[in-house]
């Protein structure tokens, strides 16, 4: 890493450190941070060059099998950035932070979310899994605590007792999810990234993120599927 540090500018290094400490950073925050790092380090700053700045960091990270990846929040369509470890496949990244029983609860929660119609799992359904775990049974109180930690650590997000995968989790685990849930995991027909919370065409089965649905059907009098042209039967947001 000292070799890598020699090639990376202080601005690059500072940006990377903050990103890593946050786990995930929203686009507008990343842009502010980009500016701050360049100004602090007194290097040339161009407001529209964030992606180039990140590419430069990524070229240094490549030998370490790491990468800053951009992803989209399924909720509002905003860009987010997270540092992904490409060498650690599957849930190994989490294995150092959680016990085996916690990981089993996470995997089972992930199953529920991905196999669901809308990309959410209710806390009731998740807590019912707690006493069916193979590692050892978990009390509901304990399971509630563990779910809270997964939300704090940005693996899950929760809204009114319904859980879904956090944007950070989707960015970091996209490949894992696509290869482990081949039959059900789908990419958004519009932005081509993994869609967990999505609307699905009744006729041909393609899925679209809600923000992508919103954008795609804006100004169309009658929403029709971009693939099969059948009437889009979901309530468009």
Automatic annotation (TrEMBL):
<keyword id="KW-0863">Zinc-finger</keyword>
<keyword id="KW-0833">Ubl conjugation pathway</keyword>
<keyword id="KW-0862">Zinc</keyword>
<comment type="similarity">
    <text>Belongs to the NSE1 family.</text>
</comment>
<keyword id="KW-0479">Metal-binding</keyword>
<keyword id="KW-0539">Nucleus</keyword>
<dbReference type="GO" id="GO:0005634">
    <property type="term" value="C:nucleus"/>
</dbReference>
<comment type="subunit">
    <text>Component of the Smc5-Smc6 complex.</text>
</comment>
<dbReference type="GO" id="GO:0000781">
    <property type="term" value="C:chromosome, telomeric region"/>
</dbReference>
<dbReference type="GO" id="GO:0008270">
    <property type="term" value="F:zinc ion binding"/>
</dbReference>
<dbReference type="InterPro" id="IPR011513">
    <property type="entry name" value="Nse1"/>
</dbReference>
<keyword id="KW-0808">Transferase</keyword>
<comment type="function">
    <text>RING-type zinc finger-containing E3 ubiquitin ligase that assembles with melanoma antigen protein (MAGE) to catalyze the direct transfer of ubiquitin from E2 ubiquitin-conjugating enzyme to a specific substrate. Involved in maintenance of genome integrity, DNA damage response and DNA repair.</text>
</comment>
<dbReference type="Pfam" id="PF08746">
    <property type="entry name" value="zf-RING-like"/>
</dbReference>
<keyword id="KW-0234">DNA repair</keyword>
<keyword id="KW-0227">DNA damage</keyword>
<dbReference type="GO" id="GO:0000724">
    <property type="term" value="P:double-strand break repair via homologous recombination"/>
</dbReference>
<dbReference type="InterPro" id="IPR014857">
    <property type="entry name" value="Nse1_RING_C4HC3-type"/>
</dbReference>
<dbReference type="GO" id="GO:0061630">
    <property type="term" value="F:ubiquitin protein ligase activity"/>
</dbReference>
<keyword id="KW-0233">DNA recombination</keyword>
<keyword id="KW-0158">Chromosome</keyword>
<dbReference type="InterPro" id="IPR001841">
    <property type="entry name" value="Znf_RING"/>
</dbReference>
<dbReference type="InterPro" id="IPR013083">
    <property type="entry name" value="Znf_RING/FYVE/PHD"/>
</dbReference>
<dbReference type="GO" id="GO:0030915">
    <property type="term" value="C:Smc5-Smc6 complex"/>
</dbReference>
<dbReference type="Pfam" id="PF07574">
    <property type="entry name" value="SMC_Nse1"/>
</dbReference>
<protein>
    <recommendedName>
        <fullName>Non-structural maintenance of chromosomes element 1 homolog</fullName>
        <ecNumber>2.3.2.27</ecNumber>
    </recommendedName>
</protein>
<feature type="domain" description="RING-type">
    <location>
        <begin position="188"/>
        <end position="229"/>
    </location>
</feature>
<keyword id="KW-0779">Telomere</keyword>
<dbReference type="InterPro" id="IPR036388">
    <property type="entry name" value="WH-like_DNA-bd_sf"/>
</dbReference>
